[in-house]
Amino acid sequence: MAAIYSDIHLKLKSPRTPWPEKLKLARFAWISTQCFLPNKEQVLFDGTSHALNCFYNKKVDVPSEVVEGLWAYLDDILHSRKLHNVLSQGKTISLRLTLAQVFTSTSVLQEFHLDSNMKFHLY
């Protein structure tokens, strides 16, 4: 089964993959135990962060419904039991400074209520 999902990271990074499909693949990869990506949580978090950053810096054209979906997906990640488990094992998830700038410039930070136990590393 793992062979079926082995190219998800390639599809997520490919400019040929339509945005709605990338969002569906990212959601699937997050919940699937059969999809193996090294450092999966960080890879998926980075991909979502990068897509949002590129959209707000006007580097790519992303449909508005996909942008809304990316924010919802990011919210799902941040509030997930899976991320909580990863962080409680002492692992960290790095948050790029550019995403923090997107948070503050779009005032979406008010909508995210992060657990006080979550530790993010800004770089």
Q: What structural keywords apply?
A:
two-stranded parallel sheet; 123 residues; single chain; 2 strands; mainly alpha; 5% strand
Q: What can you see in these coordinates?
A:
One of its GO terms (cellular component) is nucleolus. InterPro entries: Ribosome_Biogenesis_Reg. The protein has 123 residues and is mainly alpha-helical. The chain has a domain of 84 residues. Helices cover 56% and strands 5% of the residues. It has 6 helices and 2 strands; from the N terminus they run αααααβαβ. It has a two-stranded parallel sheet. Helix 6 links the parallel strand 1 and strand 2. The chain is globular, with a radius of gyration of 14 Å. About 7% of the residues have low confidence.
Outline the secondary-structure elements:
Blueprint: H1 8-13, H2 19-31, H3 40-56, H4 64-78, H5 81-88, E1 93-95, H6 97-106, E2 120-122
Parallel strand pairs: 1-2
Helix pairs in contact: 2-4, 3-4
Brief synopsis:
The chain is mostly helical. The protein has six helices and two strands. It has a domain of 84 residues.
Contiguous runs where pLDDT drops below 50 for at least 5 residues: 109-116
Shape: globular
Largest sheet, described in full?
Answer: 2 strands, parallel
Helix tally equals 6
Q: Into which percentage range does the β-strand content fall?
A: under 5%
Mean pLDDT: 80
Number of strand elements:
2
Q: Give me the strand/helix succession.
A: HHHHHEHE
Structural class: mainly alpha
Strand arrangement, major sheet: 1-2
Compute the separation of the termini in Å.
Answer: 36 Å
Q: Round the Cα radius of gyration to an integer and report it.
A: 14 Å
Helix fraction by DSSP (H/I, runs of at least 4) = 55-70%
